[in-house]
């Protein structure tokens, strides 16, 4: 009983940390531009496969210790961020006024990325090389803690803390917050919406890439369809937390992450997602705008 409880706690912490990264990027893009970016899922996969290719190439093996894996993680985040940025400046900014067309365009991009991955890597899942391998055995309670899970949790909270500082303490970050509350108000204060949106897509892409690496190295091997379930859960998290709310996304990510861990460990992996849907319906019935929802004004 105790070992099951600890497994839920440890697995839930890891899953929640990864879901928080995915949901933060997803909600930032929607909060600033009102775009429901389904290609965000494809960026998770881009990050995972970039890490796979770079870490296996041996090009960075001259670095000491975990240097090759850390550098591969940074490359994965950079590539996912650039793909996200190019997607916005090359396509979305020209069609974002039409919500339906933009939504369909991001779906098509996600499917194209999936097809490219299938062509290049096949459908065989690939477990990513751990940045921090090994585990610590907790013999007294009959369980062990994988170091990669601990690292994922720490990295997630470092990023969340950095994002909080960025949007609260810097002019560039505050411009993102202003644009998410009122585009017209932000423009009246001299904020360039195009620059804010481009920056937001860049940041969201980096978060997705990092999440993809930790997802592929901990709970779910890298595969062309690895993004489907995490993106669906990220959507549930964003709605529960309140669309556009960073705090809401983090809180909801931990709620859903622990629900998923409980389902996998106690009920069965085949029932994964059911409890999350139940919570989503319950929250929408009581709080239609989510736990920390606020009304955005895009004028």
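^ Assign residues to that structure.
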């Amino acid at each position: 009983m105790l070992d099951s409880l600890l497994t839920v706690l440890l697995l839930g912490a890891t899953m929640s940390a990864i879901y928080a990264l995915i949901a933060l990027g997803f909600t930032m893009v929607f909060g600033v531009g009102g775009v429901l970016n389904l290609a965000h899922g494809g960026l998770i996969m881009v990050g995972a496969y970039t890490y796979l290719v770079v870490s296996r190439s041996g090009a960075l093996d001259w670095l000491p210790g975990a240097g090759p894996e850390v550098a591969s993680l940074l490359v994965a985040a950079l590539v996912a961020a650039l793909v996200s940025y190019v997607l916005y400046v090359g396509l979305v900014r020209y069609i974002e006024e039409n919500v339906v067309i933009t939504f369909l365009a991001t779906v098509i991009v996600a499917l194209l990325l999936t097809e490219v991955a299938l062509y290049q890597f096949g459908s065989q899942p690939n477990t990513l090389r751990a940045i921090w391998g090994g585990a610590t055995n907790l013999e007294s309670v009959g369980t062990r803690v994988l170091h990669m899970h601990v690292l994922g949790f720490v990295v997630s909270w470092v990023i969340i803390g950095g994002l909080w500082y960025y949007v609260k303490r810097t002019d560039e970050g505050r411009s993102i917050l202003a644009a998410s509350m009122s585009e017209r108000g932000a423009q009246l204060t001299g904020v360039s919406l195009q620059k804010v949106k481009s920056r937001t897509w860049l940041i969201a892409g980096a978060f997705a890439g990092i999440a993809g690496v930790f997802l592929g190295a901990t709970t779910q091997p890298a595969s062309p369809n690895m993004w489907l379930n995490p993106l669906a859960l990220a959507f549930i998290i964003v709605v529960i937390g309140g669309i556009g709310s960073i705090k809401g996304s983090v809180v909801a990510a931990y709620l859903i992450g622990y629900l998923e861990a409980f389902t996998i460990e106690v009920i069965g992996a085949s029932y994964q997602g059911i409890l999350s849907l139940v919570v989503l319906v319950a929250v929408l019935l009581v709080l239609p705008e989510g736990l920390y929802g606020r009304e955005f004004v895009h004028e």
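The longest strand covers residues 135-138.
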